[in-house]
Design a protein that fits this description.
Blueprint lengths: L10 E5 L2 H9 L13 E5 L14 E9 L2 E8 L1 E6 L5 E5 L16 H10 L12 E4 L3 E6 L2 E6 L13 H19 L7 E3 L4 H11 L7 E7 L8 H11 L2 E7 L1 H15 L7 H6 L1
Parallel strand pairs: 10-11, 11-12
Antiparallel strand pairs: 1-2, 3-4, 4-8, 5-6, 5-7, 8-9
Helix pairs in contact: 4-5
């Protein structure tokens, strides 16, 4: 997207939920009737919709042209972007790094980002292993206006300690937040299954999801049986029995690693520590 573009759309792509539809209606805007969860719909982000609250992971871009000489591009959410040129910036946005490869000046490893990954098993800030490509960090916005580029944080978590409530209130509030979040994630046009690793986190989420009205009561588990001590399927089976889930298991062998590694790398875009991607791709 170049700052010399003559296009001036005033729409943004967003996942439409019932809550967002309500906010659009209150703001006097309209949006197409969506699928229950994943429909990408165009919603106006003019002055009447600036206060709309979006939840989860999202990325959107707003391009507005006041006149032939003034243009403003604003990007929100979490997405990869490529900045080309210094005097007249060209910006390319994508939700996946691989989509930017055709417009990269060259495909080169960022040596500093590689050092960070080898040290911490992740990269710091907006770096990734591709030189020239950056990430727009969560809670940040990027603005391109008349050739200048700036980023700023528009949201951050409230870090104040709440001393006004007792422990019982926090327990109840945490349960409310978990139930609400899980209910949102269960919205789908197809049955949603829970991945149960046998650990505490996934087991808790699967159990809580099983109590939701929209639950399909499906769970899946990838088990490693080539070496003793790596098979956690017995724990996944206990969780499935307790929550009355239909557990689908897949045995993942060393040969599966060899057969799947190229596909896993392609879909990841960049390295992720641990074997979980192989479980999910198998």
């Amino acid at each position: 997207m170049s700052d010399g573009s003559s296009h001036s759309p005033t729409t943004a792509k967003s996942t439409i939920t019932a809550e967002l539809m309500d906010e659009l209606n209150r703001a006097g805007r309209s949006a197409p009737v969506p699928h229950r969860s994943r429909a990408a719909a165009c919603c106006q982000v003019g002055d009447g919709c600036r206060s709309i609250t979006l939840r989860g992971m999202f990325g959107l871009c707003h391009l507005a042209t006041a006149n032939a000489c003034s243009q403003r591009v604003t990007a929100f959410g979490h997405q990869a972007f490529l900045l080309r040129g210094r005097s007249r910036a060209s910006i390319y946005f994508a939700s996946e790094i691989k989509a930017l490869l055709p417009v990269l000046p060259d495909i080169v490893t960022d040596s500093d980002a590689l050092a960070e990954y080898l040290t911490f098993q992740y990269t710091i800030g907006d770096r990734n292993l591709f030189k020239h490509v950056h990430a727009l960090l969560p809670g940040h916005a990027l603005v391109v206006e008349n050739g200048s580029v700036r980023t700023f944080r528009y949201w951050s978590a409230d870090g104040e300690i709440d001393r006004d409530h007792d422990p019982a209130w926090f327990v109840e509030r945490m349960n409310e937040i978990l139930d609400d979040s899980i209910a949102m994630h269960l919205r789908s046009d197809v049955p949603v299954g829970a991945y149960v690793s046998g650990g505490f986190d996934s087991s808790l989420i699967a159990v809580l999801a099983s109590g939701q009205p929209a639950s399909s009561r499906i769970a899946f588990h990838g088990k490693f049986t080539d070496h003793p001590g790596y098979d956690e399927s017995s724990y996944a089976e206990i969780v499935a029995d307790e929550a009355a889930l239909r557990l689908h298991q897949r045995t993942i062998t060393s040969q599966d690693f060899c057969d799947s590694i190229e596909k896993v790398i392609y879909h990841l875009d960049h390295p992720v520590a641990g074997p979980e991607p192989f479980r999910n791709m198998s």
